[in-house]
Write a structure and sequence with these properties.
Oligomer: single chain
Distance between the termini: 51 Å
Bound molecules: N,N-dimethyl-L-histidine
Strand content: 15-25%
Number of strands: 14
Radius of gyration: 21 Å
Strand order of the largest sheet: 1-5-4-3-6-7-14-13
Number of helices: 11
Helix content: 40-55%
Order of helices and strands: HEHEHHEHEHEHEHEHHEEEEEHEE
Structural class: alpha/beta
Length: 333
């Protein structure tokens, strides 16, 4: 009986709203096929995250070589008490929350301050993921209300109604997976929708010795390789094609000029790929690559460019002692 009551009480602190405008399958097919017919073949990194891809990514975040996740969390642990003292009355909005592990650091610091009530607004593409995480969070934080939105946060951030100032969290250096110009545009849009006093906490993976970067995307146990190759399974499902992961090698390298890790899949032999949706096969020459991901690495010049381009004010850059990762705090002036 108690259990049932508890479920009712926690459920009353959760609301999930679906504002997704469905993207038709034709658009997805068109996007993937045109990427595969381009001079430099590409598959957008958003297609990594089918069920297997999401599990593999979680595994990557726990790898010894993959420093970003644990480094970002250690920074958050360090700064959370002061941040929550300063902005404890703010609501927390998180773009693409993933598991609850990062926001939990902020919420725990707020809980330690005995804040009467807290509102957390996670924005994610997956309504199912939002429901599972919301249920977990309200169980751990008795003063917490979760108002989740299934949205494409890139285009729909402005549609979220809110009255209070917010800390907007965009963690994990997900921003780094966008081309530099696209990331500035995204941040400019975000800044345009922010209200005076709102704070943006941006997780940014910083430039560091190339061998460290190389190892993070070429781990010894081959999880990143499996993650990279899995995008072909995801594409096979979406465009009914016949890619075979055995025909490709994983390639990840640091492109210093563009300050980014690039991931590719390299054809081991000449290939002809069929899809139920296209008449002409997709041809690959031996050695030709499909570009699957960019992961930009930043320095202080990039941060200054962001300030210049978005008009946001730079409050502080919080880094670990090696300066490998930064949680940068911007404010809407
Ligand atoms: C999600 N994103 C920030 C990760 C990154 O590091 O760019 C994805 C990833 N790709 C390979 N390993 C991890």
């Amino acid at each position: 009986m108690n259990y049932v009551n508890e479920e009712v009480i926690t459920a009353s602190r959760i609301s999930i709203t679906n504002l997704l405008q469905e993207i038709g399958p034709n658009e997805v097919i068109r996007e993937i096929v045109s990427g595969l017919r381009a001079e430099q073949k590409t598959i957008s990194s958003k297609y990594f995250y089918n069920r297997t891809g999401s599990i593999l990514f979680e595994e990557i975040t726990r790898l010894e070589e993959y420093y970003p996740t644990r480094t970002e969390k250690s920074i958050l642990k360090e700064i959370a008490p002061d941040l929550m003292k300063q902005y404890g009355e703010f609501e927390i909005i998180e773009l693409g929350p993933g598991d609850n592990s990062k926001v939990s650091i902020l919420l725990s610091a707020a809980k330690d301050l005995n804040l009467a009530s807290m509102r957390y607004l996670p924005l994610d593409i997956s309504q199912a993921a939002l429901s599972v995480s919301a249920a977990e969070l309200v169980r751990s934080y008795p003063n917490l209300h979760v108002e989740g939105y299934a949205v494409d946060f890139l285009s729909q951030f402005g549609t979220i109604e809110r009255e209070h100032p917010a800390i907007i969290c965009f963690f994990g250096s997900t921003i780094g997976n966008f081309e530099w110009d696209a990331s500035l545009e995204l941040l400019r849009n975000l800044s345009g929708k922010m209200k005076k006093g709102d704070v943006l906490l941006l997780g940014m993976d910083m430039v560091k010795p190339a061998h460290v970067l190389h190892a993070a995307y070429n781990d010894a146990s081959g999880v990143t390789e499996a993650f990279n190759k899995n995008i072909l399974h995801s594409v096979n499902d979406l465009i009914k094609s016949d890619f075979n992961t055995e025909d490709f090698n994983h390639l990840a390298f640091y492109n210093k000029k563009k300050s980014r890790i690039e991931m590719h899949l390299v054809a081991k032999r000449d290939l002809s790929i069929h899809s139920e949706y296209i008449r002409e096969e997709i041809l690959l020459k031996k050695g030709e690559t499909i570009h699957t991901e960019n992961s930009h690495k930043y320095n202080s010049r990039h941060i200054r460019e962001i300030v210049k381009s978005t008009g946001l004010q730079l409050n502080q850059t919080h880094t670990d002692e090696k300066g490998w990762f930064a949680v940068t705090e911007f404010q809407k002036a």
